[in-house]
Write a structure and sequence with these properties.
The chain is an alpha/beta fold and 256 residues long. It is built from nine helices and twelve strands.
Length: 256
């Protein structure tokens, strides 16, 4: 994958700058300002925001580091995968958080899918998820970074691409509606509670996908497909949301 100036795709580390030769002092007027480091962290529902963050990184001059792994939740909760505990995710999460701490970023943008069942269900699911999110948000905060949590986006009704192909002249038939488009409202409540307890900021993209007044969640906006499959935003739509995501992140970085 080509490297865009100011952006480090995936987990690839940037090359170290060449040291200034000791025989000649560096010209302060030619010194480059160290770019802000921004990290994207979570599962594939975090990775779906990469097109928007990549565009912002290019415009703002950020160094963007993407640390994402499919089906691995942000919350420190072991989930089921193929009928067994998905402990690989727990290991990945721990190592990713340690890497973020070493990077000392100014901002960590986190998100994850509301799907996924705990390997050890608790009597109080809300408390289990709230505690899991709190633990991760606190660990991320030790790096000194602002933590911005994007709630999971509304889900379409079935396969939106297949539905649109069959109903090209009647796309409204493919639209989902709130609150049905929210996969698990309990997770959203848990995220908000954990953020309030740890000082993280919550960004709700629901109104960017579903009309606030009617609650209708279309499969196409203008000429852009909203989703690419049963749960993920399309790359084109995620990038189109850059102008509405930017103000929230700029405020956290003090650049608005």
């Amino acid at each position: 994958m080509p490297v865009t100036r100011g952006v480090t795709p995936r987990c690839r580390a940037p090359r170290s700058p060449r040291p200034v030769p000791s025989r000649r002092a560096a010209d302060p007027h030619r010194a480059q300002v160290t770019p802000r480091t921004v990290v994207l962290f979570g599962d594939s529902h975090a990775a779906q925001w990469f097109p928007a963050l990549r565009r912002l990184a290019t415009v703002r001059g950020w160094k963007l580091v993407s640390l994402t792994k499919a089906s691995c939740k942000v919350a420190d909760v072991t989930i089921l995968n193929d009928h067994g505990p998905y402990t690989v995710c727990d290991t990945w999460r721990s190592r990713a958080v340690a890497k973020i701490d070493a990077l000392r970023p100014e901002l960590v943008v986190v998100s994850s899918s509301d799907a996924g069942d705990p390997a050890r269900p608790a009597a109080d699911p809300l408390q289990q998820w709230t505690t899991g999110f709190e633990d991760t948000f606190r660990d991320l905060g030790t790096s000194g970074a602002h933590v911005a949590v994007l709630l999971d986006t509304p889900w379409p009704k079935g396969d939106p691409v297949d539905c649109a192909a069959k109903n090209s002249l009647h796309l409204r038939a493919c639209a989902n509606h709130l609150p049905d488009a929210t996969y698990d409202a309990t997770r959203h409540t848990a995220v908000r509670g954990a953020a309030a307890a740890t000082g993280a900021s919550v960004i709700d993209p629901g109104s960017w996908v579903c009309a606030p007044r009617t609650g209708i969640c279309p499969v196409v906006v203008g000429d852009t497909a909203v989703h690419r499959d049963e749960s993920h935003l399309s790359e084109a739509y995620a990038e189109a949301l850059t102008p509405v995501l930017a103000p929230a992140l700029d405020r956290l970085l003090g650049t608005d």
